[in-house]
Fold:
Amino acid sequence: MISKTMEAALNRQINRELYSAYLYLSMSAYFETATLKGFAKWMRVQAKEEQVHAMKIYDYVIARGGKVVLEAIEEPKGKWTSAGKIFEEVYAHEQKVTGMIHALVDLSLKEKDHATFEMLQWFVREQVEEEEHASEILSQITMVGDVPGHLFYLDHQLGKRE
Ligand SMILES: [Fe+2]
Ligand SMILES: [Fe+2]
Structure:
């Protein structure tokens, strides 16, 4: 069994992962309207990954005899001014999520909850990749120029993501 404190903290993280999915889906929809179909595809795949993250924690809570509680998902923003602005936000958001994961790791250590600590290590590694990808794409946008006319090659590249 997991403690009530840990159960609540993990339920909160399920909500934040679902919010991440919602935010990235909103960004994907924005890119669709901006005719940057490759960026839209990349974001759609990213949204799916966030759902997978939520379900990893969801399944873990159940496996440990806890109770999953789903709360309202915050409404994401729907408008941005450029692709660069979006990736600045993605990068900042992922850094925030990394902080949340690290806080969960701290809690697992405090509670001597070794199973939760072990489960969270996957997320610690995943966040390194998430931050790396976001900052890489942000740099590429900055390099070519944050205007739609310059983004077609990058759009083509990002559209290859499966
Ligand atoms: Fe995530
Ligand atoms: Fe993420």
Notes: The mean pLDDT is 97. The helical segments are 4-33, 37-63, 83-110, 114-144, 152-158.
